[in-house]
Every structure is written in structure tokens, then in C-alpha cells.
Design a protein that fits this description.
3 domains, Rossmann fold, single chain, 35% helix, four-stranded mixed β-sheet, alpha/beta
Length: 497
């Protein structure tokens, strides 16, 4: 009996030792901490640069050389070392997270924004900002309204490597007064325009480099500015205010609008929304998902699984009666996913741009979603998370349906108002290696998306140059640019309570 017990113990210990050794070796091979209790969180899909296999699939504008794609912008001249004070503050927030009423902790990058003072109000009464570490940068909006909710700090290199200019926009510095012989393009949108902060370049920066190289090759006496006014988490209401308050004083010749994720609210056509906890389909998938937080072996095991759509509770999608999905009546007041509100904001942007003889262009918005989509469960975990947790309980086919409808509305709106429409969604490859989640791109994906926009906008730009409409001087009707001077406020919500 003792011998049997001894054999069992020896076997268990041997197996445990082999598993521990395999775990240690896997961590070393995968570049993970060898002795940490928890694995680092996966911030985005790993992705590979697969653009070589897609570049020739994307139509080029007449006269555009394929080699132009490999022209990158110069390094940012306004990138500076991050101040030790900001690095320390960033670390403090990460190491001592404070829970907000929203159920999430205050995010470190939100510390390095200038928040709209009207939006903030009393920070101790704000459900999210009350969790800030006793201080915030704020600015006073010239129009006294709460949108946009924030701007990036000006002339700043943040701990997460975001680099801003005097406008608080991502990218290199530029003269606020529009120079002669300059075509000025402002790109507006949310996080898919601001891009993930540590990426080397955003799509507008690529577009500016390509346009100026193209002009040089054509021996045109013109310079292009492509300015990035995007920032994460905003919607059409914020974007309208950004155009009116920030872009309009700069006399833009063109404003390119790219946003379609932050108002894609399927609860507008699903009521009631069923309540359930998102879970993978099998106990084995759930086990590997949970253990992957602690084990490199579990991560490897998860990578062998095909990530299928997770089970959903049943619900009814209530489509407005008689609404065509291929040729919608834009005058209807019951369009899904807040499209009536979005078009109202687009109307306001068009009206504002008309004051400075500016042109609006709209892009279709690309999602990596389709009915029956299957992914590597580990490699593309952030994509799986977006589709199965963030947008739970909505089915893939319904997300696909509503994104297609949204883009159909954008296309028809553009046609009815004579606006250039850039069909990003039609040309962007459905390649998960180009996506960090279901909406955001990897650095390679950012560049490829910029290439798509560049090639579709170029015929419009070339026609304006040939007609003599562009370049043009700053509009005398442009409103004056209001000073942007963030100020630091301090508060103690513990005392306030």
C-alpha cells in the first residue's frame, strides 16, 4: 500500500515538475515574465505586416506609382523626452487605480488631456472623472458648451508616446495661419483617426507625405497639409463642435469625416436587449480563456482553438417597417443606429464649411465582422473580445447588417449633397492581421487604410487643382482662432463627500 502511494506521489510530482518546466520554457520562448503570477494583458492583436499581399488589390489613382506607398513621413520634430513628473504620475495611476462609478478605473492617458470645463463641472460629481488623482487639466470652451468633451494637451509628448502640436492635435507642428499655395485638409473622427497613441504615425501623416511627394513628382507649385483632429471616444456631436470651434478658423479646403463605431447602437432596433453573461461555447474554451491570464501554456492551448461566435440569447431585431436597406429614404425619422442625429451633425458641418468655402468628404467605416467569422482564439483575442464582449449580445450577422446600412446611408447622403464619398469599407481587406481589434488597425493596417483614402481622394484634389479652385488663401470669413490655454485644477473628493 505504501509503495502504491509512493508511486502515485512520485507520478504526481513528476508531472507537476514537467508542467512547471514546460510553463517556464514557454514563457521564455514567448517573451513573457518567467516567474510572474499573472501574464501581461494582451493590448491588441499581434498582427503581421501582410500589406504585401493586399497592396495590388487596392486601385491606385491615375498616375500614382506603387513605390509611393513606401514613402514614410519624417520623424516628428516636436517629439520631446517625457518629463519625469509625467512618467511618475502615469506610474502612480497604474499602480494605484481608483474605481469610478462607471465600474472602471481611471485610465492613465485620461490624465494627459485637457477636459472641457463645462463638461467636467464639479469633478467630484462626475461619475468617471471623480476617480482622477486629485487633479485634471481643463480648458474653457469658447462657446460655453460641453462638446467636444476634451482636447489633447498642446505641444506635448505624453507618457504613452502621443505627440501633439499647438492645436492639441496629433502630429507635427504647422503654421496656424494658412500659408500661401497650400491645400489644407483636416481629418476628423474618433480613435480610428487618432490611432493608438504609440503607433509611429497616423493615417493623416501618411497622406500628407504621399500628397507632397506626388506634388513634387508632378512638379506642382503647391504644398499639402493633412491635419489630424481625431480623438478617441468622440461621436458626431463632438466632431461637429471640433470642426466649428477648432478647424473652421484654419480655413480648411477639405474636411474628411471618418467615424462609424461610437454611435452604432443596436439597442435602437433591439428592444428589450436580453441580459446574459458573455461566455465561450464550451467549458474547455472557458477554462483556457480564464487560465490564459496565469499560464503561457494555456495561451498556447487557446491558440490551437478556432474562435467561433459565442452563444447568444435570442432576441428580435425590429427593423423599421418599409425601410429599404439598399436605397433608404433619408428623410425618415426612424433610421437605426442614431443615423438621423448623425446626418443632422453632418448638415451642420456642411453649413459651417460653406462659410469658408470648404468641402466635406465622408468615408465608409470598416468593421472586421461578418456572419460566420472564425478566428484564432488566442492570436486575435482582442478582436474576439470586441465582437463577443463589448458588443454582446448582438450577433455577428446583425453587426454586419447595421454597419452595411450605416455605410449605405453615408454613400447616399454624399450623393444627394454632391460630396466626395470615400468607400474605405469596400477596399479595406478583411484580414485580421491588419486589425488590433474589430475596429482599430495595427500600424500596418493604419498605413494601408491611409493609402486607400489617399487614392480615392486624389482625383478630387487633382480636379480642384486643375480648375484653379485650389490652392486658395485663407478665407476672410473664417472666424478668429480662439486661444487654447489649458489650466490645472486640483480637488479632494474625499473631503467633498
Amino acid at each position: 500500500m505504501k509503495k502504491q502511494i509512493g508511486n502515485i506521489v512520485l507520478t504526481v510530482v513528476s508531472i507537476a515538475f514537467c508542467v512547471a518546466l514546460a510553463e517556464f520554457a514557454t514563457r521564455i520562448i514567448d517573451g513573457l515574465p518567467p516567474v510572474a503570477m499573472e501574464m501581461p494583458s494582451e493590448m491588441g492583436s499581434l498582427g503581421r505586416d501582410t500589406t504585401a499581399g493586399h497592396l495590388d488589390e487596392i486601385p491606385r489613382a491615375p498616375g500614382v506609382d506603387r513605390a509611393l506607398y513606401f514613402t514614410d513621413p519624417p520623424p516628428l520634430p516636436n517629439r520631446t523626452p517625457v518629463a519625469k513628473e509625467w512618467l511618475d504620475l502615469d506610474r502612480q495611476i497604474k499602480d494605484h487605480p481608483i474605481q469610478a462609478d462607471t465600474g472602471t478605473s481611471f485610465l492613465p492617458w485620461d490624465m494627459f488631456k485637457a477636459w472641457n470645463a463645462v463638461f467636467v463641472g464639479d469633478p467630484c460629481k462626475h461619475p468617471y472623472l471623480k476617480a482622477a488623482p486629485g487633479r485634471l487639466w481643463v480648458y474653457d470652451p469658447p462657446d460655453g458648451k460641453p462638446r467636444p468633451t476634451f482636447r489633447f494637451l498642446p505641444d506635448f509628448t505624453a507618457p504613452d508616446q502621443l505627440v501633439t502640436n499647438a492645436m492639441g492635435w496629433r502630429g507635427p507642428p504647422f503654421p496656424l495661419e494658412k500659408p500661401a499655395k497650400t491645400v489644407r485638409i483636416v481629418v476628423v473622427g474618433a480613435s480610428t483617426i487618432a490611432e493608438i497613441h504609440h503607433y509611429p504615425f497616423s493615417s493623416p501623416e501618411y497622406m500628407q507625405a504621399w500628397l507632397n511627394k506626388w506634388a513634387e513628382q508632378k512638379k506642382l507649385d503647391v504644398r499639402f497639409e493633412v491635419l489630424n483632429a481625431g480623438r478617441e471616444s468622440v461621436n458626431s456631436n463632438d466632431i461637429e463642435a471640433i470642426v466649428r470651434e477648432e478647424a473652421l478658423p484654419l480655413s480648411p479646403d477639405l474636411v474628411f469625416y471618418y467615424e462609424g463605431g461610437n454611435q452604432l447602437d443596436l439597442s435602437t432596433v433591439v428592444n428589450p436587449v436580453p441580459q446574459a453573461k458573455p461566455q465561450p461555447g464550451t467549458w474547455w474554451e472557458r477554462f483556457l480563456r480564464d487560465m490564459a491570464q496565469y499560464s503561457a501554456l494555456a495561451r498556447r492551448g487557446e491558440s490551437l482553438m478556432v474562435g467561433k461566435e459565442w452563444p447568444r440569447p435570442d432576441y428580435e431585431l425590429k427593423w423599421p417597417p418599409g425601410l429599404s436597406e439598399t436605397d433608404p429614404d433619408l428623410t425618415r425619422k426612424d433610421l437605426p443606429v442614431h443615423l438621423n442625429s448623425i446626418m443632422d451633425r453632418l448638415d451642420a458641418i456642411r453649413g459651417d464649411l460653406a462659410k469658408v468655402d470648404g468641402l466635406l468628404s465622408i468615408g465608409s467605416f470598416h468593421w472586421l465582422v461578418k456572419d460566420g467569422l472564425e478566428l484564432n482564439a488566442s492570436r486575435y483575442k482582442p478582436i474576439m473580445f470586441t465582437l463577443n464582449v463589448t458588443y454582446f449580445p448582438y450577433r455577428y450577422r446583425d453587426l454586419e447588417r447595421l454597419t452595411k446600412f450605416e455605410n449605405t446611408v453615408f454613400a447616399k447622403y454624399s450623393k444627394e449633397h454632391g460630396l466626395p464619398f470615400v468607400d474605405v469599407a469596400r477596399q479595406m481587406p478583411n484580414d485580421p492581421d491588419l486589425f488590433s481589434d474589430a475596429i482599430h488597425n495595427t500600424p500596418a493596417g493604419v498605413k494601408l487604410r491611409g493609402w486607400i483614402v489617399f487614392n480615392q481622394l486624389l482625383p478630387v484634389i487633382e480636379a480642384k487643382l486643375k480648375s484653379g479652385e485650389w490652392p486658395k488663401p485663407a478665407s476672410p470669413d473664417a472666424p478668429p482662432l480662439k486661444p487654447y490655454k489649458p489650466r490645472l485644477i486640483t480637488f479632494d473628493c474625499k473631503k467633498a463627500s
